[in-house]
Amino acid sequence: MRRAARSARAGYTGRVNRPVLGARSRAFLKSLAHSLAPVVQVGAEGISPEVVRATSIALEDHELIKVKLGQNFPGERVEAAEELAAQTGSVAVQVIGRVVVLYRRRSREDPKRPRIELPRR
Fold first, then answer.
1. Which of 11, 21, 87, 90 is deepest in the core (most CB within 10 A)?
2. Do residues 17 and 114 make contact, with C-beta atoms less than 8 angstroms apart?
3. To which H or E segment does residue 94 belong?
4. Which residues pair with 42 in a beta bridge?
5. What is the pLDDT of residues 22-80, one digit of tens each?
6. pLDDT higher at 116 or 51
7. In what order do the strands lie in the sheet with 38-42?
8. Distance between CA atoms of 12 and 67, rounded to whole angstroms?
9. Domain ranges in the chain?
10. Start-to-end Cα distance in the chain
11. Fold of the 2-103 domain
12. Residue 97: how many CB atoms within 10 A of its CB?
């Protein structure tokens, strides 16, 4: 019961299959993210349900996104990256300054938009 209450408070969405990235995969995703522009911006209100929803939609569309934390963001950047990753079922690839790079494998097949193929181990 305590675990369920703690998970509900933390905003856990029920996603269990968060990908685990090795060093090669993380480096590969960092190189792909270099040329990307931020898709989602987080303001002074912090990580709200609307931000989580927008991030989840962007991850479903793009798989790899940048999230910009605004100057008035009320918290630690690394903690915010981990919280947003946990709530969206993604992985925080990188945090540089106020920019967070998130990755989540696309759940549905779309032949027009191929999935990102991570390097083999």
1. 90
2. no
3. strand 91-96
4. 69
5. 899 999 999 999 999 999 999 999 999 999 999 999 999 999 999 999 999 888 999 99
6. 51
7. 38-42, 64-69, 99-103, 91-96
8. 20
9. 2-103
10. 39
11. Translation Initiation Factor IF3 (3.30.110)
12. 8
